[in-house]
Every structure is written in C-alpha cells, then in structure tokens.
Amino acid sequence: MKLFTLATLAxxxxxxxxxxxxxxxxxxEASNQSVANGVVSAxxxxxxxxxxxxxxxxDAEMRPGPVVAYAPIREGETTDVAAxxxxxxxxxxxxxxxxxxxxxxxxxxIFEYTLGASEDGPLRIDGNLVMTVITAE
Length: 137
Fold this sequence. Notes:
single chain; 137 residues; alpha+beta; Immunoglobulin-like; three-stranded antiparallel beta sheet; 1 helix; globular; signal; DUF7282 domain-containing protein
C-alpha cells in the first residue's frame, strides 16, 4: 500500500506543473459589450510577459485593422483590463482584443506599435494570434 501511495503522490506532483502551464496558456477573455462609456474591457488576459491589450478594428474577414485602444497588462493573469477608446466605435462594430508584447521598441512602458510593425507587436502561439473578437453594443 505504501508503494502505491508513493507512486500516486509522485505522479500527482510530476503532473502538477503541466496542469498549471495549461491553465496559464496565453488568452483573452471578453464578451460583447457597450462601449458608450468610451471603454473596451477584457474580463481576463493571460500573457507570458508584461505587454499590452490592444484593441483593433476588424470585420468578417477577421484581420486586425487600425488600433482604437490599448492598455498595459502584467505577466501572468490580469483581470478587468480596461482600454480607453481613442476614436468613436459604433454599436455593431467588431473589435479584436489582442495580446501584444513589450519588446523591440525604443522605450519600455510606451506603446510603440503601428499596424504591421514589429515593435510591441502581437503575440503568436503556434502561428495564431492570441485574441478574441467582440461586437460593440
């Protein structure tokens, strides 16, 4: 019985980091929302390093368009991330909330990305952007 218990404990301890890593996979969680207050929010973001939640305009083709808001995020899990819109967004507009890094720019803590640039660029996992799309209400 002791051997079984030790084997079970060893297996559980060995598997724990894998479960933690899976739980902390980079992601953006948000839902359709009113932007009448000039703010777009994500419920939760998980990122491998400090960076940015960047809000791009998008459409049915699901390509990131111009940036309309951004907010800093921490390494790990950040909840209730709010970004102030820099231009008007109408009800029905589609917005892509995306994780961008804080790398390659001239200054830390200053958002330096422009569409297509590498500074503070988007995070990709296996070639896929870490993002979600919502519709403004």
